[in-house]
Amino acid sequence: xxxxxxxxxxxxxxxxxxxxxxxxxxxxxxxxxxxxxxxxxxxxxxxxxxxxxxxxxxxxxxxxxxxxxxxxxxxxxxxxxxxxxxxxxxxxxxxxxxxxxxxxxxxxxxxxxxxxxxxxxxxxxxxxxxxxxxxxxxxxxxxxxxxxxxxxxxxxxxxxxxxxxxxxxxxxxxxxxxxxxxxxxxxxxxxxxxxxxxxxxxxxxxxxxxxxxxxxxxxxxxxxxxxxxxxxxxxxxxxxxxxxxxxxxxxxxxxxxxxxxxxxxxxxxxxxxxxxxxxxxxxxxxxxxxxxxxxxxxxxxxxxxxxxxxxxxxxxxxxxxxxxxxxxxxxxxxxxxxxxxxxxxxxx
Length: 348
Ligand code: PMV
Hints:
The protein has eight helices and 18 strands.
């Protein structure tokens, strides 16, 4: 077989209604649907994949460093290996793969590259193998890298339906509106800490549903939030989007704290951001900004372009200079051969 190569770029997403808790750890099936914004290429992962008979084994390079694909503790490589394996068996190609990936995330921004990387890898590998997969199937495959990665396969405003089936075929992401529907929406990101989290999201997804009593109410609350936020996005009703976003982040961090032992990701600086945004909204007399936090202390503040300066300056006062602004994007795309990270069969 001739060598086959493809390259794709993927971007992160930020959930406004969160996924926390899974009903199946192998397939990454969530307890509830979630809703997110796919960000533009201000932050991105580029991934090239080559399948070749000349390769003796699968290998993965991330930001210039080789990763051990046989190390089960290395989540990045274990997930990449899993996706390559799934796509290889779908295509019938048996050749080994070389995967080369680079992130342009600002240094120490503390972002997980699993979502942008998962979307780029699923798209590049399926293209190289000649599999004509639609976004739904790509998202089902990316979901197996990390649950939230499935949302980065779609552009703009995205819902990941929890689904009900045991095999996960009805648990996929889809765009409810492209980024162009509401291009004024932006995410102002404040880096508060880039230290490694003590409890991985993977552990949390299992611990919280098992031990938190409050969690019994969480899937129902999140489903209701998803329904309402879809309607609010369709109407471009920022006040409702902002309120649901802040409440849903607080709801997720409440069930994290109610886990046993408790899981805490927010720190005093994160809480200072929460209070500052409420103060800003009160001063404006209407919600102009909404905070949301993932499994870490870094703040994402969703706002509209016309309020960018106010929000950036409020965040700089609290978190210092580590503030990045991202708009909305249309999801992963293929790059040309010229942009490949693999030249003459080796990483560039
Ligand atoms: O995709 P994972 O397993 O890293 O879980 C992500 C969970 C949150 O980021 C906290 C919420 C979300 O929906 O993105």
